[in-house]
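Justification of computing resources. Each target in the renewal requires a structure prediction run like the one illustrated here; the chain below, 364 residues long, is used simply to show the kind of job we budget for.
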Amino acid sequence: MLADSDSTSATLAEIQNFTLFVSSWNVGGIAPPNDLNMEELLDTRNNLADIYVLGFQEIVPLNAGSVIVPENTTICMQWNSLISTALNKTDFNNITLQEAEEEESVKVYPLKKGSSLKFNVENSTQFECIISKQMVGIFITVWARSPLVPYISHTSVSCVGCGIFGYFGNKGSVSVRFWLHETSFCFVCSHLASGGKEGDERQRNADASQIISRTRFSCDSFQYLPRKILQHDRVIWLGDLNYRIYLPEATTRSLVNDGQWSILLQNDQLKAELREGCIFNGWQEEDIEFAPTYKYHPDSDDYYGCSQNGKRGKSRAPAWCDRIIWFGKGLKQSQYNRGEFRLSDHRPVRAIFKAEVKVPSPLH
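Resulting structure tokens:
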């Protein structure tokens, strides 16, 4: 039986910290260009993480045709190919060839005590996709260092449609779970109800409630496996949550222009839910110190509705629609910022976590 990682276990174990990179991006139904460089978003020039979790929304246009076709293998392969290219460079965790020659071996964290992985230029440390799933426009893909893959088990997916008729996948979630050593992880990638009118936040809350109640992972009768989101040890929710700001549009735009994030965030709908705990009771979010991620003119740094070629677009007040929040113990966030890709009307967000993982100790 698998033991809960935060409870007392008969097996000897130790706690190790692993680095998680988590990102969310609404790409506005635009297919990625073949030359799109994901290195900036994945921040691969700095130290590489142990696990990368990337969630996308609107990887296909949300029209009547796409809603009835839940999966598009071609578009998923395009995104995974770009991610693989960015992660699987010939350099090894940014170690130069000269540095590699000076060291006989390079350790890959974490390995069993006393073991090491020989550095090989032609076969440097790789990242493998351990799970990947699409539902209409929502797509989540998880990548792990190759030495970790043997210690990852019980991968499972659960999709919840909350869109048209409360069922279709134009809105909803794709959740994935897995075990790393003796600790369970759950990642929820969602696209909640849109709309900037007063009261629209209630539908977003209803979507989130549906996702929490309807998400179910596969079960094994011979082992304890958590089936619900909140039963997992480490839980992270990412996506276009679509929460807006409780202020008039003109006031919001003025405060955005002045960079008054603290005033805006005091009136942020999701922050209000986190404070009041009506739907996200017990969830946490790191401080936001970046500009609202929505809504931009594509290929522009101008928010939608601002002057663009002398024309005023349809009203869409700026908002922090794209978010990353977490639940439970054993997670410490060290970074929360946004990327500056101009592909769509959203900017991606990303976060880095240190996650505590229960790792069996060798018996002596």
